Amino acid sequence: MSVRGERKIDVRDGRPFLSSWKRGREVEELLKSLMEEGSREERRKKMG
Domain of life, per the record (predicted)? Predict the structure, then answer.
């Protein structure tokens, strides 16, 4: 099975897992900043 081979590669150098984790963190930061911007826009609309 191809899945077993992929897992073996992950264990050997650990790069695929690490890069995907890093990408997940980047996406989290992006979503957080987007949400903050959105709430800021909402406040501006209510005030103005």
Answer: Eukaryota
Q: How many Cα atoms within 13 Å fall on the side-chain side of residue 14? A: 1
CB burial of 8-30 (b: ≥16 within 10 Å; e: otherwise) equals: eeeeeeeeeeeeeeeeeeeeeee
Distance CA 21, CA 32 (A): 17
Residue ranges of alpha helices (H) inside the chain are 2-13, 15-47
For the question of whether the overall pTM of this predicted structure is more than 0.85, the answer is no
Tokens of 25: 């963190």
